[in-house]
TrEMBL record:
Enzyme class name: transferase
Annotated keywords: Amino-acid biosynthesis, ATP-binding, Kinase, Nucleotide-binding, Transferase
Catalytic activity: L-aspartate + ATP = 4-phospho-L-aspartate + ADP
Location of the Aspartate/glutamate/uridylate kinase domain: 2-273
EC number in record: 2.7.2.4
Residue ranges of coiled coil: none
PANTHER family for the chain: ASPARTATE KINASE, ASPARTOKINASE
Protein family per UniProt: Belongs to the aspartokinase family.
Pfam families: AA_kinase
GO MF annotation, one: aspartate kinase activity
Organism from which the protein derives: Moheibacter stercoris
Name of this chain's protein: Aspartokinase
Metabolic or biological pathway, per its Swiss-Prot or TrEMBL entry: Amino-acid biosynthesis; L-lysine biosynthesis via DAP pathway; (S)-tetrahydrodipicolinate from L-aspartate: step 1/4; Amino-acid biosynthesis; L-methionine biosynthesis via de novo pathway; L-homoserine from L-aspartate: step 1/3; Amino-acid biosynthesis; L-threonine biosynthesis; L-threonine from L-aspartate: step 1/5
Classification lineage: Bacteria, Pseudomonadati, Bacteroidota, Flavobacteriia, Flavobacteriales
InterPro entries: AceGlu_kinase-like_sf, ACT-like_dom_sf, Asp/Glu/Uridylate_kinase, Asp_kin_monofn, Asp_kinase, AsparK_Bifunc_asparK/hSer_DH
Length: 413
């Protein structure tokens, strides 16, 4: 089977949904498994619903607003389809009913039970539309297949259960399912981390021993820089899994970093292509492909924090101290994107997704003098040469590090 994944940008409006049909007519869709994300920025909007719910704000109006957006897309796609309108309305009724009845104070649990609706609704709409124009497909609930533990918002895959579930699936039809979702041992919904739909496609490709996987994007493929920030970004025709995993790890957000590992294990060819120009080859990612063309690659990670801890008593930064600091960071789910130490100080570039940085600083302030710069950017340049390492960032340089062919600079913009 082939696995396709269409992200939020590809289904942000009715035109986008119609375009998927065009892509499928071009590529064919026999023995295909298609993973779809929530429409446009729906996940962000549903995150706001959860925030409002916990702040005792007006979450009901926000839900209504999201429902209206989906109804508008459905009205543009269907002249008259009572069933689709009814099922959209039902999803939003269910969110309201769940929140009214909910007693759990667990933010992450509630988040997953609410935010999952973005993917459930978008796949319902796309599936119904494709069926209505003769592209027959079978909608499935991915939560019956992808099993995880109960780490809400970051579900860890139970591979053996998941593989077993996919083994029972009949191989023939054209399937449509949701990205980003799974379910825990008690069948509560889990999510796999923001932007996790690429990863879902890779999990499915792995379980089905797929012949290839293609993710369809609003860019020509993987480029040597994000075209939103670099005007002269160029398409990379071929890269290896290793290069792709490094680029994604350093922050090239075109592919979710977890995507490559399952594909590489089974050596499944992976393509990143443009949903606007499906006839173009895009980027091919396979084993041991040499970067072609061989270019320096630029990656920017925004919203970072540079923290320098210096021992108050002038003692060395020893392994036990580093271990204690990292254990605290791990417990607070703060990611370390770069580190550097000297005799008595340790500098860390930290990403604070769950807003726990202040708690961390309180934890360590008795032993260390703390210097910090919030809102810095981490610039990474892979395969750098003398020419490319000049002037690829603007702003004041705070820290620089070179590891093999990778140069990293922390900048105050
Ligand atoms: P999806 O619709 O699947 O969610 P994303 O928006 O997550 O897609 O990813 C596509 C975006 O990734 C592009 O619009 C582009 O701005 C950004 N991007 C970041 N780095 C790169 C890169 N190296 N090459 C191409 N696109 C990149
Ligand atoms: N809809 C989810 C998100 O926006 C998952 C995804 O799009 O990959 O994070
Ligand atoms: Mg995305």
């Amino acid at each position: 089977m082939k696995v396709f994944k269409f992200g939020g940008a590809s289904v942000k409006d009715a035109e986008g949904v119609k375009n998927i049909a065009d892509v499928l007519e071009f590529t064919g869709y026999k023995e295909t498994f298609m993973v779809i994300s929530a429409m446009g920025k729906t996940t962000n909007a549903l995150e706001t619903v959860v925030e409002l719910y916990f702040e005792k704000g007006d979450y009901v109006s926000k839900i209504k607003e999201i429902e209206e957006q989906h109804l508008k897309i459905a009205k543009d796609l269907f002249q008259d389809s009572e069933e689709v309108f009814y099922s959209i309305n039902q999803f939003f009724e269910d969110i309201n009913a769940f929140l009214r009845r909910n007693k759990s104070p667990n933010y992450n649990f509630v988040y997953d039970q609410v935010v999952c609706c973005g993917e459930l609704i978008s796949t319902k709409i796309v599936s119904a539309y494709l069926n209505s124009i003769g592209i027959e497909n079978t909608w499935i609930d991915v939560r019956d297949f992808i099993k995880t533990d109960d780490t809400y918002r970051e579900g860890k895959i139970n591979w053996s259960e998941t593989e077993k579930n996919f083994a029972n699936l009949e191989k023939g039809p054209f399937y449509i399912t949701q990205g980003f979702l799974g379910s825990d041992p008690n069948f509560f919904t889990t999510t796999l981390g923001r932007e996790g739909s690429d990863y879902t496609a890779a999990i499915i490709a792995y379980c089905l021993d797929a012949e290839s996987m293609t993710i369809w994007k609003d860019v020509p493929g993987v480029m040597n820089a994000d075209p939103r920030f670099f005007d002269d970004a160029q398409l990379l025709n071929k890269i290896s899994y290793e290069e792709a995993i490094e680029l994604a790890y350093y922050g090239a957000s075109v592919i979710h970093p977890k995507t490559m590992q399952p594909l590489r294990q089974k050596e499944i060819p992976f393509y990143v292509k443009s949903f606007l120009n499906p006839e173009n080859p895009g980027t091919e990612i396979q084993k041991e492909l040499r970067l072609d063309p061989f270019l320096p690659c630029y990656i920017v990670k925004k919203d970072q924090n540079l923290i320098t801890l210096t021992t108050k008593d002038f003692s060395f930064i020893t392994e036990d101290k580093i271990s204690d600091i990292f254990n605290r960071l791990y417990a607070l789910k703060i990611n370390v994107n770069m580190m550097q130490n000297s005799a008595i100080s340790l500098s860390l570039c930290l990403e604070d997704k769950y807003l726990h940085l202040d708690e961390f600083l309180l934890n360590v302030e008795s032993g260390y003098k703390i210097d910090y710069e919030k809102n810095v950017s981490l610039y990474t340049l892979r395969h750098f040469d003398e020419k490319s390492s000049y002037s690829f960032y603007k702003g004041k340089e705070l820290l620089r590090q070179i590891i093999k062919n990778t140069l990293q600079i922390i900048v105050k913009e």
